[in-house]
Amino acid sequence: MNPVLKLLMETGGQLGIPEMARVLGLTEDQVKAEIEELKRQGILLGWRPVFNFSRGEDGMVRAVIEVRITPERGGGFDRLAERIAKFDEVESCYLMSGGYDLLVFVSGESLHKVAAFVSEKLATIEGVLSTSTHFLLRTYKEQGFLVSPQGEAKTRLDVSP
Predict the structure, then answer these.
(1) CA distances from 160 to 10, 157 (A)
(2) Bridge partners, 104 (sequence order)
(3) Residue 56: pLDDT over 90
């Protein structure tokens, strides 16, 4: 694996170019060139911070939606999946194997707004056969980071006697 990409994945993009160069034993120009090449190849699309939404007061509601769709002739699942992925409410959209076709992660300001998105926008799309919505109640781990109920990230497991 590309060492710059590996370091980005391990640190979540928290290191600056000078720190990355020092860790990898490269020059800053080499690190910049590697990052630009990863972007050019479409491998590195960007990185985002990891939030603990339970600490905030924004009231963000997240849901996971299982979607069954009818594949289209000549396009399979792609065209419909890409259409669904373009909605602002959709954080992520994955083609899956198993009992449903798409796994869609959605966020909204309230349960009502997420439910309205599903019933008014998602379920009404031609080709969508069914949806099953699951609201996220508590986050224990987000993108590799443990999240405690009090909002402080835990780095080690508790040891009991």
Answers:
(1) 29, 10
(2) 65, 93
(3) no
Q: How far is CA 88 from CA 59, 92, 122, in A?
A: 17, 10, 12
Separation of alpha carbons 22 and 16, rounded Å: 10
Would you say the C-alpha torsion 112, 90, 55, 146 has a positive or negative sign? Answer: positive
Q: Which residue has the higher pLDDT, 36 or 14?
A: 36
Beta carbons within 8 Å of 96's beta carbon, 6+ residues apart: 102, 103
CATH class of 61-141: alpha beta
Residue 73 tokens read as 């002739």
- Helix or strand (DSSP H, E) at 46: none
Residue with tokens 């996220």: 136
Q: 63 to each of 85, 134, 154, how far by Cα in Å?
A: 14, 5, 24
Confidence of residue 13 (pLDDT cuts 50, 70, 90): confident
Average the pLDDT over each of 47-51, 52-56, 75-79, 96-100 and give the range with the smallest value.
52-56
- For the chain, give the mean pLDDT: 86
Residue 133 contacts by C-beta under 8 Å, 6 or more apart in sequence?
A: 63, 64, 65, 114, 115, 118
CA distance 17 to 148: 31
